[in-house]
Amino acid sequence: MTFVVNEVNTIPGFTNISMYAKATADYAEIIDCLVEHGVARASRVGQTNREHRATS
């Protein structure tokens, strides 16, 4: 299984004053949790949306 993440806002909530910075989990743990939840949701929903766009 391959995951590709496209982040539109490159620092959404990851500044020094954000809640993520004050959380007890580090960045890698937060990303792992988000991916696990996404995979679980995709299996519940039964489909995922895939789209490929060439960058210029």
UniProtKB/TrEMBL annotation:
GO terms for molecular function: D-alanine-D-alanine ligase activity. Residues 2-34 form the D-alanine--D-alanine ligase C-terminal domain. This is D-alanine--D-alanine ligase C-terminal domain-containing protein.
